[in-house]
Amino acid sequence: MLAVAPRFARASHFDPFRTESLGHSTVVRFCVPALVDEAIVDPVARRLFELADATFRPVIILRLDSVADLTSDMLGYLLALQRRVKARGGQLILCDLHPELTVLFRRLLLNRLFTVRADEEEALAVA
Predict the structure, then answer these.
(1) Are 33 and 66 spatial neighbours (Cβ–Cβ below 8 Å)?
(2) What is the pLDDT of residues 13-43, one digit of tens each?
(3) Which of 12, 24, 30, 60 has the fewest CB neighbours in a 10 Å radius?
(4) How far apart are CA 119 and CA 2, in angstroms?
(5) CATH superfamily name and code, 17-126
């Protein structure tokens, strides 16, 4: 299943995530099963940083229900994104974590570093 991502990454029309503005929040919905391929991870990180820089006090909600795996590079990007968002007076909220990511976040104690909510509705309520 992970071999699917590189094929999509080379397609010029493929977008690894979609965004939707809901009130003062931007909800990011991923369309890939994993964030492990450099051809996807680097552009995703770049676009997420652009979202953070686009507004003062950004509120970014990342829905991770479709993402079963991610690299340590992507984790590093998420931590950097959180620092960037906080520096701008905003908030980064992760929600709808895939069960595999939930295990990873608990094992690495990442749930202590990130604001994690069960679902999008709960994330929007704290945003």
Answers:
(1) yes
(2) 568 999 999 989 999 999 999 999 988 999 9
(3) 12
(4) 25
(5) STAS domain (3.30.750.24)
